[in-house]
């Protein structure tokens, strides 16, 4: 009986808890007993929601078990069975420590592969990467002096009234495309 009196006394001592419902006071007391002193007020409401949802689920399952057994009302055996079923199917237990240690021993017996990479960041082989030639450079190709003169003569014939200022001594440049991989080495 001392535990109930102590809990009741703790509930009464709370400042500003007079307006809280009984269940909220219980959640607050549970948090304090677990060593949680600082939390947002919404935490209490979240725990209450979880608590109510769990109780409804257990009672719904207990009602199903009671109906299946042909009982007119739910009894403690139905509730115990519903709780046990919920624990067995909702919360999975990790394997025992001995099983985990045995699995770790078996896995650690297999040696790691030797690293064949040198110093620095290991890169995959070139055939497994996306660094093949993926762009082109437009390098102007110089025309010979004779081709430039022929081009100028052709332009004069086509347009004899063209102003002389537009003509320059620079040869016409036609682009030439060159592709090369990024990892290519420069010739020495």
TrEMBL record:
SUPFAM superfamilies reported for this sequence: Histone-fold
Gene Ontology cellular component list: SAGA complex; transcription factor TFIID complex
InterPro entries (alphabetical): Histone-fold (IPR009072), TFIID-31 (IPR003162), TFIID_subunit_9 (IPR051431)
Region described as Disordered: spans on this chain: 141-188
Location of this chain's protein in the cell: Nucleus
Keyword RNA-binding: no
Keyword field: Nucleus, Transcription, Transcription regulation
GO MF term list: protein heterodimerization activity; RNA polymerase II general transcription initiation factor activity; transcription coactivator activity
Positions with biased composition (Polar residues): 161-177
A single BP term in Gene Ontology: RNA polymerase II preinitiation complex assembly
Source domain of life: Eukaryota
Entry's family note: Belongs to the TAF9 family.
Protein name: Transcription initiation factor TFIID subunit 9
């Amino acid at each position: 009986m001392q535990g109930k009196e102590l809990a009741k006394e703790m509930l009464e001592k709370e400042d500003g808890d007079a307006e809280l419902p009984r269940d909220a006071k219980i959640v607050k007391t549970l948090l304090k007993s677990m060593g949680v002193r600082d939390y947002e007020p919404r935490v209490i409401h979240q725990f209450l929601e979880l608590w109510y949802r769990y109780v409804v689920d257990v009672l719904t399952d207990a009602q199903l078990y009671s109906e299946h057994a042909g009982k007119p009302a739910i009894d403690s055996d139905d509730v115990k069975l519903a709780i046990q079923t919920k624990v067995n199917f909702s919360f999975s237990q990790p394997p025992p420590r001995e099983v985990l240690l045995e699995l770790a021993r078996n896995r650690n017996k297999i040696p790691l592969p030797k690293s064949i990479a040198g110093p620095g960041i290991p890169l995959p082989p070139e055939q497994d990467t996306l660094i093949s030639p993926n762009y082109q450079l437009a390098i102007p190709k110089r025309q010979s002096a004779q081709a430039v003169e022929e081009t100028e003569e052709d332009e004069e014939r086509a347009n004899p009234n063209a102003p002389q200022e537009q003509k320059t001594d620079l040869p016409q440049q036609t682009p030439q495309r060159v592709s090369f991989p990024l990892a290519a080495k420069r010739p020495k």
